[in-house]
Amino acid sequence: MAATQPAATQPVATMASEADGAGTRLAFAGPLDAGATARLWPEAMRKAKGAQPLTLDLAGVTALDTAGAVLLLRLESLAGEAQFQGLAAGPLQAVLDRTRQALAAPQGAPPPAALPWLGWIGQITVRRGQDMLSQIAFLGEAAVAGLGTLRRPWRLRFAEVLRHLDEAGLRAFGLTVLLGFLIGVILAFQSSIPMRRFGAEIFIPNLVGISLLRELGPLMAAVILSGRTGSAYAAELGTMTVNEEVDALRIMGIDPIAWLVLPRLLAATLVMPILALLMDLAGLIGMGVVMGTLGYPPVGVIAQLQAAVGLNDLAGGLFKAAVFGLSIGLVGCRAGLGAGRGPRAVGDAATSAVVGGIVSIVLLDGVFSILFYRLGW
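Structure (tokenized):
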């Protein structure tokens, strides 16, 4: 059986320390790479601490990388006074010089220290205040652009208004009718259970009619518009912002508010009363179907509706719907124009538009409820 040859051993870096008069001499030999540096670092630091003067003998060093150069420079700074010996001009000297320049270059700013809880609350408050001021500024810009369009109506892009009316209105009719019909059916069935105990099933049309015309019709139509159209506005304008198309419009002297925002606001405001009316009609039809299954004729259902609801209820609901549409358009356009520049900017803008739109219509609905109560409407 043939004997195997022993594997060639890799050279190992060493460090020898000896007294050199009043100072200390550290003699390095072998490749001073990252592994050798990690092994020799503690002992080298202990030997060099307080050595005056310190001599670094590099005559036996065969290779030097950045880690080894950092060790030598750290020893030099730790001793305060050091002298290099055996280091001729060549690759080793070049590595040492480049490392010295890199360490002497200006360093980046340290990470900010963690704020205390009071500073954290103040920072959040300032950010919220700045965001609110930005929203108020956007609302003012939209109002100014709208007044300017009233003075010069030919500047409004009516083709864009028609396109957005089609996307926000006609294409949402199917979903609105389906949701309205189901809401009417659900309300009628759910209200029939407690009313049956008192023999008051005939008043189901009164309950469903008032609920749909005054509250649920405009509110559910606004939720549909926020989910479909508000997110679409934010995605379109957010994509244009990320692609710097909005900045290009400003450079060309075109106001993005008048060019991009006003057609969308007008379309959302005009289409919302139609969607709310369609939601009301579909809900009443669904309620009528349930009343028919309970044995009530259509004539009796219509008579109850005429006695319970009036034109004021319908007009109030449609007015609320128009305001909801304007609010959803403002929130969606503001989220799109305020999108960031990263890969998640468009998605974040669409999410912000949907959430902000729903929150705004709920807040406005509460304001309208208090206002209508005070007015006795």
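The first strand starts at residue 14 and ends at 20. The radius of gyration is 38 Å.
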